[in-house]
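Re: weekly structure request thread

Next one in the queue (262 aa):
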Amino acid sequence: MKSKKYTVLFIPDSENNTRSYHFSKRTFLVTSSILCLSFIASIFSFYYLHIKSKEYSKIKQNYHKFAMERTRILDLSRDLERIIQMDDLIRLSLGSKIDLESKPILIDSSINLYQSRTNQISYVENIPSVAPISGFVSQRSEDLALYIKQSHNGIDIVSKEGSPILASASGVVVFSGWTYEFGNMIILYHGDDYFTHYAHNQENFKTQLDFVDRGEVIGLVGSTGLSSGPHLHFEIWHKSTPVDPFIFFPEYYPSDLTFKNE
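Done, posted below.
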């Protein structure tokens, strides 16, 4: 006659306190089945979670990649918007094209060909070469201010309010007025696709279509527009692209207060 019970015997090394447990065949089979199913379920769960974890990591990587691409697209869109605004600003100030009554006479200042002060733009003097003010650089290109999330296309130079602002190169004033973000602002065109911007001015001394010499005073340092204190926001643009002013004015490096100077 077949046995219907199973006995599990535990014998210590000392052979004392031997314990035995009796199970019916049905209980043994049920328990064994539960343990096997639990083991299989654990393996399946581990495999499933491992696959899902890899999928999650891949999705997370793609998310960060898409977020970075989206940020780059937004930056490009803002730069494009800024260029369009600058173009509209110039067109609004001067018409559909720069027309100074007659074609500007391009001269070489190195041989002193100064025929007349009217409509002269020099190839030699149109490249920014005079620092607009002396002061400490509190923000550089591409750095973002605390509350301003748009691209920063120039540098902020902290200086005493009322300090004179110098034209970094000879040129013609294409805009002189007030904007919501930059307050009193002057934009100079220097020829050869060079533009310079001077913003947050306390006062503008020049008006549209005025010609200025390199180093001439065009305004005073102020804190107009969206500004946290007296400073000059200075930008250089060449062929519709913002250029880092430090390339033209390395003398600002010793007074650079940003982290990039550390």
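The chain has two domains: 5-58, 105-261. Residues 126 and 191 are 6 Å apart (CA to CA).
Next request, please.
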